[in-house]
């Protein structure tokens, strides 16, 4: 699995741009307390309205302009999503459930 990721990266191939769920996040989840934060992301506890299930949601700030230093590039966000999907199911890796997108953020819905 790692070899496949390295081979893909070493060939300089661009991953195709993913289309994430654009349903308004707040219509699906109730947003709770902050669990943690970093330079470009905030993690909050969220509850799925339809089921009451609890998750952690990582709100990653998207880079607005290619020349900007603020936010994370689309390529890096897609790479993180790809890696989480590739290693999903492993007992030592947090499970990615869904990915949403707003004009300013990409939101990864993760196991709590």
TrEMBL record:
<keyword id="KW-0067">ATP-binding</keyword>
<feature type="region of interest" description="Disordered">
    <location>
        <begin position="1"/>
        <end position="23"/>
    </location>
</feature>
<dbReference type="InterPro" id="IPR017441">
    <property type="entry name" value="Protein_kinase_ATP_BS"/>
</dbReference>
<keyword id="KW-0723">Serine/threonine-protein kinase</keyword>
<dbReference type="InterPro" id="IPR011009">
    <property type="entry name" value="Kinase-like_dom_sf"/>
</dbReference>
<keyword id="KW-0547">Nucleotide-binding</keyword>
<dbReference type="GO" id="GO:0005524">
    <property type="term" value="F:ATP binding"/>
</dbReference>
<dbReference type="GO" id="GO:0004674">
    <property type="term" value="F:protein serine/threonine kinase activity"/>
</dbReference>
<dbReference type="GO" id="GO:0005634">
    <property type="term" value="C:nucleus"/>
</dbReference>
<dbReference type="Pfam" id="PF00069">
    <property type="entry name" value="Pkinase"/>
</dbReference>
<feature type="domain" description="Protein kinase">
    <location>
        <begin position="29"/>
        <end position="112"/>
    </location>
</feature>
<dbReference type="InterPro" id="IPR000719">
    <property type="entry name" value="Prot_kinase_dom"/>
</dbReference>
<keyword id="KW-0418">Kinase</keyword>
<feature type="binding site">
    <location>
        <position position="62"/>
    </location>
    <ligand>
        <name>ATP</name>
    </ligand>
</feature>
<protein>
    <recommendedName>
        <fullName>Protein kinase domain-containing protein</fullName>
    </recommendedName>
</protein>
<keyword id="KW-0808">Transferase</keyword>
<dbReference type="GO" id="GO:0035556">
    <property type="term" value="P:intracellular signal transduction"/>
</dbReference>
<dbReference type="GO" id="GO:0043065">
    <property type="term" value="P:positive regulation of apoptotic process"/>
</dbReference>
């Amino acid at each position: 699995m790692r070899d496949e990721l390295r081979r893909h990266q070493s060939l300089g191939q661009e991953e195709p741009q993913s289309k994430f769920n654009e349903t308004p996040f707040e219509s699906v989840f109730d947003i709770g307390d902050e669990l943690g934060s970093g330079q470009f992301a905030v993690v909050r506890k969220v509850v799925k309205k339809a089921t009451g299930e609890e998750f952690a949601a990582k709100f990653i700030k998207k880079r607005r302009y290619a020349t900007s230093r603020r936010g994370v590039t689309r390529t890096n966000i897609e790479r993180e999503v790809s890696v989480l999907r590739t290693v999903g199911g492993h007992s030592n890796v947090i499970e990615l459930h869904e990915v949403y997108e707003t004009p300013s953020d990409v939101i990864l819905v993760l196991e709590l």
